[in-house]
Amino acid sequence: MDNLVIFLSFVVGLFSLVLISFKRRYAYWKDRGAAYLEPTIPFGNLPMRQVHFKDTTGPIYEQRKPAAPFMGAYFFRTPVAIATDLDFIQNVLVKDFSNFHARGMYVNEKDDPLSAHMFSLDGEKWKSLRAKLSPTFTSGKMKFMFPTVVDVADRLNSTLSEILKTEPELELRDLLSRFTTDVIGTCAFGVECSSLQNPNSEFRNYGSKIFDQPLYGALMQLLIIQYPNLAKKLHVRVFQKDVADFFMGLVRETIDYREKNEVRRNDFMDLLIQLKNGEALDEHSQKLGQVTFEEIVAQAFLFFIAGFETSSTTMLFSLYELALHPDIQEKARQEIETVLSKYEGKLTYEAVKDMVYVDQIISESLRKYPPAVNLARQAVRDYLVPGTKTIIEKGTAVFIPVFSVHRDPEIFSNPDVFDPDRFTPDQIKARHPMSFLAFGEGPRNCVGLRFGRMQSRIGLITLLKNYRFNPCAKTSIPMVFKDENPSLSPKFGMYLKIEKL
């Protein structure tokens, strides 16, 4: 009996200590005079069930306080700041970037070299890689890769034409992923993936595995980010080992073949090899130092996962909205035909640039369905928030809820309505520069945004020129997203009725 009393006293005492610890921790934002939401033990302000990543910050953004630059919140026991004001977002991403240049992502170079890519790295490693890789995405480099993307788009057209002979209603997500897989495989690795001809190609299988079979859900990913030292001690990986082995082997074979046979293809891999050998990328750029083999693999892998998923879903959601809005679809098709007639029917780099309305459609699709639903930054030193007495302490994470900003009716009227005219030059000029964050903003914006836009434009133009898209009985209206995927992905696939013109 005495032992039972002692045990129960110990349990009650331990529980009380844990409770007191949480209570003290949850006074963090209140003690600093910041606007905040009351947390709940032990999840803080996180939902108590599996939700999409956008819904970890969305409900907090919706309860924002007037004139507050951010809302203080808690992810488990960790205080975080959820940006709710566009001026504050501009300070974090642009004006005071030197205070927030870190992302605070989990990187484990030893156990998982693919995780050490430019998107996740911070500090001098990020700065050095960014300086080395930025010249690979100039407009001049895009012109070199343009014909390659057009060739793959032509194969997309041929493949879809064959499929439609037996299947007038089609699930498009897989087909578009195979298109972007072939583009990225060719431009980043110099490999003919043939995913369009063979849906079960190795490249396609590993690409789908990354996104459709993630190692961890959103809550576990947040835990890894918040406790990176513990995760490293436990040898936690970000990507599956077989995925890492495949890409490491592929890049090694590609580099060995090209260097032994003096092969040059004017693609992304060529540029990475030049950097590996310490060469300047062109006559105007300076030598920036060599990159290691592991760095090459990680950056090529980043190019693959970024270009593969974001461009295919951008095209996917664009076609979805165009199917629901036949008038907008027809207006885009007329522009395509008019511009192509000026260029003798050829899809040239200049012709694509002239298709302004198509670009507006892509921008509006990126607004409604941003590839990154949240942006993360981490304070690298104590930061006094302008106009307040609140200090965001070093190491504190700031989350920018892109999806919520893009769907905010105070920023975009009738935000659920698909309207490409939101992106006319006058409309863009009239809005706050931080109102559209599909590619991020500031020095850590998406380095490959030119390539992503080019790939999406070429794919969309090719499809609209040759096909008409309509909803069918299987089309999901309204759109429902898959919770397990950190980016926006249709839960029930994307079925559309397609008519060859």
From TrEMBL:
Its record classes its membrane topology as: Peripheral membrane protein
Matching entries from Gene3D superfamilies are given as: Cytochrome P450
One Gene Ontology cellular component term attached to this UniProt record is: endoplasmic reticulum membrane
Which key words tag this protein in UniProt?
Answer: Endoplasmic reticulum, Heme, Iron, Membrane, Metal-binding, Microsome, Monooxygenase, Oxidoreductase, Transmembrane, Transmembrane helix
Protein localization: Endoplasmic reticulum membrane; Microsome membrane
Gene Ontology terms, MF aspect = heme binding; iron ion binding; monooxygenase activity; oxidoreductase activity, acting on paired donors, with incorporation or reduction of molecular oxygen
Instruction: Enumerate the cofactors the protein uses.
Output: heme
Q: What is this protein called?
A: Cytochrome P450
